[in-house]
UniProtKB/TrEMBL annotation:
Paired cysteines (S-S): 101-106, 283-317
Single Gene Ontology MF annotation: aspartic-type endopeptidase activity
PANTHER family: BETA-SITE APP-CLEAVING ENZYME, ISOFORM A-RELATED, PEPSIN A-3-RELATED
Protein's recorded name: Renin
InterPro entries, A to Z: Aspartic_peptidase_A1, Aspartic_peptidase_AS, Aspartic_peptidase_N, PEPTIDASE_A1, Peptidase_aspartic_dom_sf
Active site: 88, 250
Protein's gene: LOC100695263
Signal peptide positions on this chain: 1-21
The UniProt record lists the keyword Disulfide bond: yes
Amino acid sequence: LSFFVVVVVVVVFPIFLQVHMIPLEKGKSAREVLEEQGLWEEYRQKYPYNPMAKFDGSFAVGPESMTNDAGVIISIGTPPQSFKVIFDTGSSNLWVPSIYCNSAACNNHAKFDPRRSSTYRQNGRPLSITYGTGSMTGILGYDTVTVGGLAVTNQIFGLSQTEAPFMQYMQADGIFGLAYPSLSLLHVSELVNASYINFNNQRGSVVTFGGVDTNHYSGSITWIPLSNELYWQITVDSVSGNGGCQAVVDTGTSMIVGPQSDIDNINSWLGASRQNGEYIVNCNNIGQMPDVTFNINGQQFTLPASVYVYQVQYNSCITGFSATGGNMWILGDVFLRQYYSIYNRGQNMLGLAKAR
């Protein structure tokens, strides 16, 4: 099993009334590439990953995780230059590699060349974004950005000049943030002025702008008010008998992340043993392992073991529950594989429904 959300994103633009559907591409995650090359253990020790750093409010531009490789193709410039980017509800910045970058991570990805675009305008301000396992730096510029036929002129974006070493193992070129604009240095909301952003992982691999597709979920939608209009943050009443928590729903994080004691309790209940920061289970026991249930706004959202356990190298299996510092939880792709999620910025609500 892999940590991948097949995504349906629905974004309503104020200037576009039609529904647009855009193919989403799945690539191997950085972890999968590193494992294939026998480098995973070396990299995880050299670049310790702290997914909760992404949501550290002390940063003007929050540190971001880069663990998901579900990407969509966008274009920047005139004539258009194409890039594969990750749609990330846990950040609000848009950036791509540029010709000004000579890092290893840039040299094996597409680079934006402003000299080839007649509509590019330089901003010149520096850009720096810290990640859980590194950082990127660059400069800001303006150009036409096109997503699935929807073009926005004079959109500000980042052109990288340096990128963290681990990013050379990612298949996506850059990031397209979909969190609230107050989190962003770049004000990507000029491009994504969204009423609805919908994620679905069970049927097809597509991004939809302009409407909700009932073919991708069953039953009714549970609408949940946001508890913080910075990230897509909600209140979780309980997790399989454990207490409540605040949680960020984040397509840019692979696992479900929580405080050390809570995650230890859940993994102990599941029969997992901790090894090198991961929680190992017997792959033969998946069929007998219990469901994990999140109680949110009076509704139950259940994850079976077939969703929260996945196989890694050497035929071992780990759970999708990862511990970190702090009190916040992150509901990443492990959760979103099961549920169609709707991000309604207009009413500051999150919608969840069972994915088909």
